[in-house]
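Changelog note: in this version the structure field was regenerated for every chain. One regenerated record is shown below for reference.
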Amino acid sequence: MTPAVVIVALVVGLPVLGICSVFIVWLLKGWALKTRELRLRERMLQMEEQDRAEQLNARILRMDDLGMSAVDIASLMEEVRRLRMEIEGIKQNINWER
């Protein structure tokens, strides 16, 4: 190769390699940040789930103080779930009609 071709290749090639490496590092940092964010979100969801379970246990203990049996509590919880599903269906029907 002639010296002119080598000089042009270096003048064009080195900045392109630099820009590519900066872009790759930028992508990797973005992925690392997204991974951390997803891990934190997952941890927060687990903590919220544990908190809900603790609240449910506390409610069950309070209901036990009221003299309700576990069967009564389970039937009440099932009734609440059924009513929530019914309400959700009504909301969807209302949104569908609009």
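Spot check on this record: The chain has a mean pLDDT of 86. The longest helix spans residues 3-65.
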